[in-house]
Design brief:
The structure holds 2 protein chains of 2 kinds. By secondary structure, chain A is an all-alpha fold. Chain A contains 11 helices and 2 strands, in the order ααααββααααααα. Chain A has helices spanning about 5-35, 40-60, 65-90, 100-120, 145-165, 170-180, 180-185, 190-215, 225-240, 245-265, 270-280; strands at about 135-140, 140-145. In chain A, α1 (about 5-35) packs antiparallel against α10 (about 245-265), α2 runs parallel beside α4 and α2 packs across α8 (about 190-215). In chain B, α3 crosses α13, α11 (about 260-275) runs parallel beside α12 and α14 (about 345-370) packs across α15. Classes of the chains: A mainly alpha, B alpha/beta.
């Protein structure tokens, strides 16, 4: 019979993984929901966040505890800048172009960033030699405090996003634009500004995810691809364009993985995709998705 | 609006600039790729009879890029070191050694690239192969189609050499079976009260075979063990936390793990963070003694107290001791000054492979009187003992497998000994007759 400690510990594992996935997926969902652009390069932003985190913590501050606070902040700032730069330079020209072109361009960015990262940092796994904070013991099990920190971060971001989209003017304008871009523009919403802000927030979220996940999951070229595939499954399950959907999808993914790892490791990777297929068959727009209304 | 004169000026400047640039680039390219040759080439100096003119081409294949890229880069550096040593002493019978390679990371073209090196580039001997799966894939091509020697220096599946006697395939590096058998003996000797044995390894041949050998031998020498269901994870998994907690739940006494490279380090650090090593008595990882893994783990993550952490590998740069075996000392020093790092095991084995090729060709030349044919090189390799950094390596005639010291060592902090990352200490060296099965006998299921 499984002890209650064991169940608590596995729940924390699931939530930790779900928090990282939520941060990545919410950014992806946001960009798609508002801009209707499938940004494959989102995984590359996650990877850049991880490498920036590695550089700040290991290379500049030699693993000092305070570095773990700086690195997400620096990652957010840098990824916002990079994100906006890419948006203005490469994405803006693609607004009205066919989706295949957007996919090609953003996929090309993934490949380019993978190589750039290898040139700048080398091809090996970049490992953190320690993580900040101690640990707490639950029976036989040890939880690094860092995990709790990650779960809290996910929670805070979720609350922030909810507040942003329901209480701030620009947030509500973004939601309106997601609903119906033409009408929103006609009512005086500056669509250009909305797009920049969406891309900036989306990339910042991916960068944040990378910077806080890297100490546990290590940084390596190609990590973005794995992340983006999972995130797509998450937002398909949750409904593309919905933050609540990203949260739900991420939690489902986190628990599916953990339960499988503990019981049938062979299915660990497959389960989330099986869930995705089931959701697509039953409610193709996702759990929180809206039925697509012809617009644009 | 540009008028015709300006246009011509611009085009003209452009063409001149392009020509200058191409010319400069060519010059730079030529001077970078070809070393200054002021001394006569080796073939011109010795004048031995029956030696073909032209360089002796050796081709190698390892993962040169991607997440396993360091393995190839380090093997390549050692091959370059061996090549330079050989060439500066006159080459092989006066023939200069030239190296060429293909990237094993090009997954769809592993076989094609090997064929290309031999048929298109004139490679006469092949060295290489990181992945056990790839080595098995190449058996038919090497044995039946290309029929040139392939000296394997990394891929460790027993199936390569112990399931049938190969004609052209050799392996210099220790294969996994003796290392896994030695681990079982160590468990029986040092942990007599251990009962529950767990496993976590990568979900492919290397992971399955390692556990198959270790658990089979362990059941032989310690019949009361309880083998828990082995856990196999996808290569490249980065989140082991759920597995670690389910292992803690199962409370094994011994944990065997064939995770390697970056995966092993990620698992290890997550295991330390989650206190796994406070629950088990001992941890055995046959690939823990890899310098890239040790570097990634770092001294900070060497647990103090708790489980004994045992590691092995195909060559540990501190064994044999530098005081006792100067060749190892010289190799380690040359490698460190060339590359800036201590040599990982892939470097020790690839260096020895090229030295073995040289020794075999020279031995065959003495018998034959001219540059040996492939069959004669193969015959010379069988039964050859070549001095490698890991000690003398004897190539068994019956299975073409290299025999040298099998060891397990304990993980310790490297800092106090003056090393930048953790090291293995207190090496236990095993009597070969106790851990190395006779040729063509294996616990792993062939076919």
């Amino acid at each position: 019979m499984m002890s209650i400690d064991y169940i608590i510990v596995q729940i924390i594992n699931a939530l930790f993984y779900a928090s990282i996935l939520f941060l990545i997926s919410s950014g992806l969902s946001l960009i798609y929901g508002i801009m209707r652009i499938l940004n494959l390069a989102h995984g590359a932003f996650y990877m850049l966040g991880a490498y920036i985190g590695y550089t700040v913590v290991m290379l500049y501050l030699s693993g000092a505890d305070c570095a773990f606070i700086f690195s997400p902040i620096i990652a957010i700032i840098m990824l916002q800048a990079i994100g906006v730069g890419i948006e203005r330079g490469l994405i803006k020209p693609l607004y009205k172009k066919p989706e295949e072109l957007q996919l090609l361009v953003t996929f090309a960015l993934v490949l380019i960033f993978d190589d750039l990262v290898k040139i700048a940092w080398g091809a090996e796994y970049k490992s953190f030699t320690k993580i900040a904070g101690g640990s707490l013991k639950i029976g036989n099990y040890t939880i690094p405090i860092y995990f709790i920190g990650i779960i809290l971060t996910g929670f805070i971001v979720a609350i922030f996003l909810w507040w942003f989209f329901s209480k701030t003017l620009i947030g509500r304008q973004m939601k309106a634009s997601a609903y119906n871009a033409e009408v929103a523009a006609a009512l005086g919403v500056n669509t250009d500004k909305i797009f920049i802000v969406s891309f900036a927030i989306g990339s910042a979220l991916a960068g944040l995810a990378g910077a806080i996940a890297a100490p546990i999951l290590t940084a390596y070229p190609g990590m973005g691809t794995e992340a983006i595939v999972l995130s797509f499954a998450v937002i398909v399950i949750g409904g593309m364009g919905s933050i609540a959907g990203a949260l739900t999808g991420a939690i489902i993914a986190g628990f599916a993985r953990t339960i499988m790892a503990a019981t049938y490791p062979i299915l660990e990777v497959a389960l989330i995709y099986i869930v995705m297929v089931i959701v697509l068959l039953v409610k193709p727009s996702g759990l929180f998705g809206r039925e697509e209304v012809e617009r644009r | 609006m540009v008028n015709r004169r300006e246009a011509l000026k611009i085009v003209g400047t452009g063409i001149v600039g392009l020509a200058v640039g191409l010319g400069a680039g060519y010059q730079i390219g030529v001077s970078v790729s070809k070393p200054q040759e002021t001394a006569p080439t080796p073939a011109e100096t010795t004048g031995l009879p029956g030696i073909p003119s032209g360089a002796f081409k050796v081709g190698y294949m390892y993962f040169m890029t991607g997440p396993f890229g360091t393995y190839g880069q380090m093997a390549s550096a050692a091959l370059e070191l061996a090549k330079d040593e050989i060439n500066s002493a006159g080459g092989i019978l006066g023939r200069e050694v030239e190296l060429t390679y293909k990237d094993e990371a090009d997954r769809e073209h592993v076989v094609d690239n090997i064929v290309k090196m031999v048929q298109d580039e004139g490679v006469e001997v092949l060295i290489g192969i990181d992945s056990s799966g790839d080595s098995l894939k190449l058996i038919k091509t090497i044995e039946e189609e290309l029929q040139v020697p392939l000296i394997v220096t990394h891929a460790a599946t027993p199936k390569l050499t112990e399931c049938a006697k190969r004609k052209f395939i050799f392996r210099i590096s220790m294969y996994e079976e003796p290392i896994d058998i030695a681990a079982a003996l160590l468990v029986a000797e040092k942990y007599p009260d251990a009962v529950k044995i767990a496993n976590i390894g990568p979900d492919y041949a290397y992971g399955w075979d390692s556990w198959a050998v270790f658990s089979a031998k362990l059941e032989e020498v310690k019949p009361n063990v309880e083998l828990l269901d082995p856990i196999y994870v996808k290569l490249g998994t980065t989140d082991y936390t759920s597995y670690i907690d389910s292992l803690i739940e199962a409370k094994p006494d011994i944990l065997f793990s064939s995770l390697w490279g970056g995966d092993a380090a990620t698992f290890f650090k997550q295991a330390v963070a989650k206190g796994l090593f406070d629950v088990i008595d001992a941890y055995f990882n046959p690939m823990l003694g890899a310098t890239d893994t040790l570097k990634a783990i770092g001294d900070e993550n060497v647990p103090s107290g708790g489980a004994d952490i045992w590691g092995s590998g195909r060559y540990w740069f501190l064994h044999p001791s530098h005081n006792v075996y100067p060749l190892n000392k010289k190799f380690v020093e040359s490698f460190k000054s060339k590359v800036g790092e201590y040599p990982p095991y892939v470097s020790g084995t690839s260096y020895t492979a090229l030295m073995a090729v040289k020794a075999a060709i020279e031995k065959a030349y003495v018998e034959v009187g001219s540059w040996p044919e492939v069959d004669e090189i193969v015959k010379a390799l069988e039964g050859l003992t070549v001095a490698g950094p890991m000690g003398p390596v004897y190539i068994r005639p019956d299975d073409h497998q290299g025999i040298y010291d099998v060891y397990w060592g304990k993980l310790s902090k490297g800092g106090p000994e003056g090393y930048p990352y953790p090291i293995l200490t207190d090496l236990v060296i095993f009597d070969p007759s106790k851990v190395i099965p006779p040729p063509l006998k294996t616990y792993v299921k062939c076919g």
